[in-house]
Amino acid sequence: LATSLMTERARLEVVIEAVPGAVSIHDAQGRIVRLNRMGLENAGPERSKDTLADSPRTYAVRTPAGEPLPLENFPVTRALRGETVSGVEIQFLDVEGQDRFASLSAAPLHDARGKIDGVIVISHDITTLHQSQREAEVRANELETIFEAMTDSIFVFDRAGQILRMNAAARELLALDAQPEHHYNFVPYDENGQPLPEEQWPLYRVLHGETLTSANAMDIRMLSSDGQELQLNISGAPMRNKEGSLIGAVCICRDVTERRQLEKRTQDTLNALLAMAETLVLTPDGSTPSGPLTTADGYVPTEVSRVAQRLVELTRSVLGCERVAITTVEPETNELHSVAAIGLTAEEESKWRSRTQGFHLSDLLSDPAHGSQLLTNEAIILDMTQSPFSTIPNPYNISIMLIAPMSVGEQLVGILSLDYDGKEHEYTPGEIALAKAVAKLAALVIERDRLLRERAEARANELALREANRRMDEFLGMTSHELKTPLTSRTQANTLELNFVPCDLVTLVREAVEEQRRVWPTRTITLDLPAESTVSISADPDRISQVMTNYLTNALKYSSEDLHVTLQLESDNARVSVQDHGIGLSPEEQKRVWERFYRTEDAEVLSNSSQSSMMGLGLGLYICKTLIEQHLGNVGVESTPHVGSTFWFTLPLAQQENN
């Protein structure tokens, strides 16, 4: 029996030492009576003889959160009460005074009579695991903070398309106060208010494995929870588990509502300005007006009045104001004459046009500083509710009025005024700039009419005729420059600087095509690119994009069928072609189509789109030819009447860096 007991004891010792953790055996008072090798390393020789009561002081036992652990909650204490304890995590100081974390399990030991006479404790060091968990929690908190702080709206969907998570920007976008507890109605629709087919939904595409990057991100319309229409640009990617199975999707939504509205407004503004410019260039029926600009009773010639009326109509449609008026100023006397207005009732317009003789600019502008501003080509803003204007009659209920000067050179020939019918309105720099541009065009219309009259009268005198022709040619040259130079960059005169930089022609062509696809959503434009991913050229990318846009808009305007765009490499050159199936050109027209101000007489606009509602000025292809030739390239056209045309241009490929 003694031998058997010794054998079993030896086996128990081997088992205790083999346990992958610290093992301690305590007596009925909780004192340590046995430690395996790992337990001795953790406790150290000095602390191996400590009593249970010494543990809080020598081991500084705490909860994982750092709170002191009461002695009665120690695993040893609980086991001495007969409780079996498993997986209790604690924090303590090791023999070197360093914080460690351990998972403890304890069970009572009983004597032959079943009385508790000790406890066995097994401890596993989980310091590394705990540190990893804490680092993971910190990283998760950082990622959560980043997720919530991102300005783009981020949505996380499950495989069924239900929203799992969204950040603060997404909740604000959809006007939600918290994470949705149900499936949000994420149904996009087109510009006509009709739901898109499900297979065209961005979420559907991503949940079927497609990745939407910035290059192929989708624009959609949808409603927020409060009923507001949103225009969103959506990119996204599928989520997969480690086995590669699709488990959900992440979508990033950018609110482009204001940007798209601004783009539409900009396009409308451009169309309006082009229409205004066209009224300036064209003289109906080749007629030559005669007689004074205004008669003694303030009569304005029909042609000037008609064009001015068109200008005020376009101005109101672009700015959204209530009233717009054009008034001429007699250079000699500064007397004002009514020319055109919109936004007045019949009675108000009659009163406005019948202003008595002797009404001068100084009567409208009591402050001489305002007149000086107009003479220096500066717009002025008048608050008609403040003194001194508040003390004079205001029959038109004007609150804040903007007045832009109509000047030719340094001569003030008129004013353009607009207001919002008693409503408070803060005029933006863009609105002021547009008003000044319209006023400039109106001034040119009046000056053109004056010069035409002057030339007609000068026909009786050859010398006078020669001088009038010179002045008319100078004026037309100025007008041509005004038309060819963007309104936002008139700091250069009679020159066109090109900013040559290395660029990729493939990117320029693709972006131009994508832009026109967006502008003309009902038209098909196919694009054929070379196998090379990039085609390097040295060019001014803005000007090349301008040429591409002109080629494409011409083809879209004068044809109703699909377009085909091709980029090819030919020896040391790249060749870009735009093919349409429109009205085509005769051989004579092909020779003259690149001339300045040349327009095909029989050209018929075939497209039904609102973008094609206006004829061109005859400058586009001339400018394209000039730009391409300044890039050392060539332009050309191949056309068959009633079959279609292919307009092309070539550009030299970029040389090696050592060249």
Chain-wise SSE layout:
Layout: H1 2-18, E1 22-27, E2 32-35, H2 37-47, H3 55-58, H4 75-80, E3 85-93, E4 99-110, E5 116-125, H5 127-149, E6 153-158, E7 163-166, H6 168-173, H7 202-207, E8 218-223, E9 229-240, E10 246-255, H8 257-281, H9 302-319, E11 323-329, E12 336-342, H10 346-353, H11 361-364, H12 368-375, E13 380-383, E14 400-408, E15 411-419, H13 429-458, H14 462-484, E16 501-504, H15 505-519, E17 525-528, E18 536-539, H16 541-557, E19 563-570, E20 573-579, H17 587-592, H18 620-630, E21 634-640, E22 644-652
Parallel strand pairs: 17-19
Antiparallel strand pairs: 1-2, 1-5, 3-4, 4-5, 6-7, 6-10, 8-9, 9-10, 11-12, 11-15, 13-14, 14-15, 16-18, 19-20, 20-22, 21-22
Helix pairs in contact: 8-9, 8-13, 9-13, 13-14, 15-16, 16-18
Compact overview of the structure:
With 659 residues, the protein is an alpha+beta fold.
Structure description:
This protein is 36% helix and 24% strand. With 659 residues, it is of the alpha+beta class. The protein folds into 4 domains: 2-131, Beta-Lactamase (2-Layer Sandwich); 150-255, PAS domain (Beta-Lactamase); 269-484, Beta-Lactamase (2-Layer Sandwich); 501-652, 2-Layer Sandwich (Heat Shock Protein 90). The strands form 5 sheets. A 5-stranded antiparallel β-sheet has the order 2-1-5-4-3. Strands 7-6-10-9-8 form a 5-stranded antiparallel β-sheet. Strands 12-11-15-14-13 form a 5-stranded antiparallel β-sheet. A hairpin with a 2-residue loop joins strand 14 and strand 15. The longest helix is centred in the C-terminal third of the chain and has 30 residues, at 429-458. It is elongated, with a radius of gyration of 42 Å. The termini are far apart. Residues 284-299, 481-488, 490-494 and 610-615 have low confidence and may be disordered.
